[in-house]
Design brief:
Number of strands: 12
Radius of gyration: 29 Å
CATH architecture of the largest domain: 2-Layer Sandwich
Number of helices: 9
Number of domains: 2
Strand content: 15-25%
Shape: elongated
Largest sheet: 5 strands, antiparallel
CATH class of the largest domain: Alpha Beta
Strand order of the largest sheet: 2-1-5-4-3
Helix content: 40-55%
Length: 374
Amino acid sequence: MSEFLPPEPAPSVSQFSSQSLFKSLVQALPTPILVVDRFLAVAYANTSAQRIVGVKTPFEGQSIGRVLRDEGIVALVQASIQTEGTKKSGFARGGPGISWNVVVAPLNEINADGSPSATPPAFFVITIEDVVEIQRLEQVQRDFIANISHELRTPLTAIRLLAETLEDIIDTDPDKAQEFVEKIEVEAYYLNDMVTELLDLSRIESGQAVMTLEPIEAERLVHEVMARMLPLAQRHRVTLRTDVQQGKTPVAADSKQITRVLVNLVHNAIKFTPSGGTITLGTTQLAEQKMQRFFVRDTGVGIRKEELPRVFERFYKTDRARSKADYFGPGGGGTGLGLAIARHVVEVHNGSINVESVLGQGSTFTFALPIVQK
């Protein structure tokens, strides 16, 4: 009979030195934080602080004035040191659209009984708040709420009106009633698709979506998407063809997710390419970068230059009048989330997605994936 061994005790905070625990806590915070001594020398700075001041290498031991290069902030730190109290102020930085809220506070020592020590503080903490970035995030949040409210209201209003009309004609005009039922189903499917894509986008953005990266031949991804999208292209009288070069090259990819990206790009191309147009789905190797390029090129109506920077935003839809007249779906089709999902999927694969377009001539969407080194 084996002897019972109790499990090892979990580590406690007391096992860490106060210095290592402090550094770990500060490093984990997204807020830029610097610690200076009474002589204005930087004792510690987290990665967020290095990023916001534009210095990649550690700058411990340097003067805070040399690091931040702002007399106003240095004066604020000096005022906190002299009064041993908290000081805060706003600062407009060198370039346009750059503004910081800076808070300087003493790091008072704590006695064993938890009371503050009478010893003058030896260190002071500086926290920096990027006002412009906060305003940008607040605007993104407001835009998101406004967009989702609009996107939900349109189909819900349609469903309500269709249901009210259906109630009036269900006994007198069965054929018309059936038509209204089908329209309600279309709107319901649209709502379901939007909720599903919102959840998918949320999981990908938060890192909760599991990506299984495995070697897969580039041409296999292209041919699979070709087989899936060819019937839709034929239905809309658009020629769909492939252009495969170095197709045997293996790429590191989650085949399900990358297929989803390509399907979305081809679907959009079909939607915005007039009958008789051509869509080319292809891949080629970028040997000098050790990347494999995938592209979807169409001869469609193109995208206006001013819209190009926004096509990968959530809920952003280009001019709806550009879609084919025979395309069926609420609002010209699409939830405005497909390209946002595509961008995040490609970025998780350590790639980037881009678009080039000429109005009236067509668009080309491209992204690259790392090649699996043999």
